[in-house]
Fold this sequence. Notes:
By secondary structure, the protein is mainly alpha-helical. It has 7 helices and 2 strands. The chain has helices at 5-18, 28-35, 39-51, 76-83, 110-126, 129-141, 146-156; strands spanning 55-58, 64-67. A two-stranded antiparallel ribbon has the order 1-2. Helix 1 crosses helix 2, helix 1 crosses helix 4 (76-83) and helix 2 (28-35) packs across helix 3 (39-51). 25% of the residues are buried.
Amino acid sequence: MIFSKTGRYVIRALAYMAGQPSGTPLDIQKIAKGVHAPVAYLAKVFQGLTRGGLVTSQRGQGGGYLLSKDPAEINLLHVMDATDDAKNSVLSNCVMGMEECSNKNPCTLHDIWVASAKKMKNELEKTTLQDVTGIMRKLRSERMGRRILSRRIRSVFK
Length: 158
């Protein structure tokens, strides 16, 4: 999987937020309940998302989190960069596990993996939260389970 567990929670949470009425702050409990994620874990992650510029927070009564941009302007590569360590990402490392895999010292699958990783990054860059939100709406209307969502999101990258 190209996304970490945190990345998967964040995509679901941000897409959930994108599907709510614009300009309405959402508290972390509502977001966590909406995406079936642990509240404490998501609260910690959202602190990082605030620092990363994906969301803004409002304190006080009626406060919560808001997307910092329009969902059509936030792509999945940006989300991945904000949540996952790019240096340790599967897209940045040797698929065969070699520590020193490069054009000068390639592994067996180096050329294939470099081309594949580039295609995946391009798809992640083209796919926005608005796209993912559309998939989530369709799934809710079809009353499909959470597990199906993962399959549907994977189909975006085919």
